[in-house]
Design brief:
Elements (H helix, E strand, L loop, with lengths): L1 H52 L2 E5 L6 E8 L3 H17 L1 H16 L23 E6 L2 E2 L3 E4 L2 E3 L1 H12 L3 E6 L5 H6 L5 E8 L2 H4 L2 E3 L4 E3 L1 E6 L13 E5 L3 H10 L3 E6 L5 E6 L5 E5 L2 H9 L5 E5 H8 L1
Parallel strand pairs: 3-7, 3-8, 12-15, 12-16
Antiparallel strand pairs: 1-11, 2-8, 2-9, 2-10, 4-5, 5-6, 11-16, 13-14
Helix pairs in contact: 2-4
Length: 318
C-alpha cells in the first residue's frame, strides 16, 4: 500500500508539473497575443490619426476656365457620331445627364462605404443588348467617377450609360476596354470597327487632330487638391511637386505652364478676345496611371498637390 501511494503521488506530481508547464505556455501565449494586438491597434490608430490630421481640400483653379467633355469617335464614322449626338442631345434636353451624374456620384460613394444609392424613378441603369453580334469598342479608364468607375466588378458610369443607350438604339452591344487614359485617343484613331473614347475626355485642339468629338455632354473645372487648400491656382504651383494623371488636361496644362506658359482666350461681351497666359515656373510634374496613386503620395508628402477635374476630386476625397 505504501508503494502504491508513492507511485500515485509521483504521478500526481508529474501531472501537476505538466499543468504548471501548460499554464506557463498559456500565459506566454496570452502575453504574446496581447502584445501583437496592442501593436496592431497602435498601427491602426496611427493610420487613422494620420488620415484624420491630413485635411485635403479641392479648390477651383482661379486662373483656368471650364473644360468641355465629348465622346471621341474614329474620324469619318458619321453614322456612329450621329447616333451618339442623338443620345447626348436628348439626355441634355430632358435632364438625364444631370440625373446620371448625381446617381453615379452616389453609387461611387456607396462603393466606398457611403449610403446606398437610389436611382431616380424612371432612370434606366441597365441595358439589354438582346443578343446583338455587332460591337462598339468603348475605350475608357475606370478611375474617373462618376463618368466611369468599377462597381460590383463592372465598369459603370455616365459615359458607359451613354454608349449603352447608343448601342441599343443601333442594334449593337458595347465592349468596354479599360486602358490607360493616355492611349485612348490613339486606340480610337487606329480602330478598324466602331470605336469610341468615353472617358470624361476634354475636347482639345490636339485631340481633334486624331479623333472627332461628339456634342458637349458635360463640362468640368480643374481643381488643385492640397493640404488645407493652400494652393488655389496653377500659378501657386510654381516650384511645387504636382501629381497628374498621365495624358489628362491637368497633365497638359501644368506641363505647358512650366514651359512657355499655358494660354487660353476669354471673349468679352463686345466680342474682343483677351489672351490669358498661365505660368508655373519651376514646378515638377509627377505622372500617375491612376489618381488613387497620386492621392497616396499626397498624403505621404511625396507631392505637394494634385491637378484634376472637380467632380472626380470631390468623390476621391470622400
Amino acid at each position: 500500500d505504501v508503494y502504491k501511494r508513492q507511485i500515485i503521488c509521483k504521478q500526481y506530481e508529474k501531472r501537476k508539473i505538466f499543468r504548471i508547464y501548460d499554464m506557463k505556455k498559456s500565459v506566454k501565449t496570452i502575453i504574446v497575443l496581447a502584445v501583437v494586438a496592442t501593436i496592431i491597434t497602435a498601427c491602426f490608430a496611427l493610420v487613422a490619426c494620420n488620415d484624420k490630421d491630413i485635411n485635403l481640400v479641392a479648390v477651383n483653379a482661379a486662373d483656368l476656365i471650364k473644360e468641355d467633355f465629348g465622346i471621341a469617335v474614329t474620324k469619318g464614322n458619321t453614322a456612329l457620331m450621329d447616333a451618339i449626338n442623338k443620345v447626348v442631345d436628348d439626355w441634355t434636353a430632358n435632364g438625364k445627364i444631370s440625373q446620371y451624374i448625381e446617381y453615379y456620384s452616389a453609387l461611387a460613394d456607396e462603393e466606398n462605404g457611403g449610403p446606398k444609392a437610389v436611382a431616380p424613378e424612371g432612370l434606366q441603369t441597365s441595358w439589354d443588348f438582346k443578343g446583338a453580334t455587332q460591337t462598339i469598342a468603348v475605350y475608357t479608364e475606370s478611375g474617373f467617377a462618376p463618368y466611369e468607375f468599377v462597381y460590383g466588378g463592372n465598369v459603370v458610369g455616365l459615359d458607359i450609360a451613354i454608349m449603352s443607350q447608343v448601342a441599343v438604339n443601333t442594334g449593337k452591344k458595347i465592349e468596354v476596354k479599360d486602358v490607360a487614359f493616355d492611349v485612348i485617343a490613339t486606340n480610337v484613331s487606329t480602330a478598324t470597327g466602331d470605336a469610341v473614347g468615353a472617358a470624361g475626355m476634354s475636347i482639345t485642339d490636339e485631340r481633334k487632330e486624331v479623333v472627332d468629338f461628339s456634342h458637349v455632354y458635360a463640362y468640368s473645372t480643374l481643381v488643385v487638391v492640397s493640404k488645407d487648400g493652400q494652393y488655389k491656382s496653377v500659378k501657386d504651383l510654381a516650384g511645387k511637386k504636382v501629381g497628374v494623371q498621365e495624358g489628362t488636361s491637368g497633365d497638359i496644362i501644368i506641363s505647358e505652364a512650366i514651359g512657355g506658359g499655358y494660354t487660353y482666350e476669354i471673349v468679352n461681351g463686345d466680342k474682343v478676345a483677351t489672351t490669358v497666359v498661365v505660368k508655373a515656373e519651376g514646378a515638377e510634374v509627377k505622372q500617375y496611371k491612376a489618381y488613387a496613386l497620386a492621392l497616396q503620395d499626397l498624403k505621404n508628402g511625396r507631392i505637394d498637390a494634385i491637378l484634376m477635374d472637380n467632380i472626380p476630386a470631390e468623390l476621391m476625397l470622400k
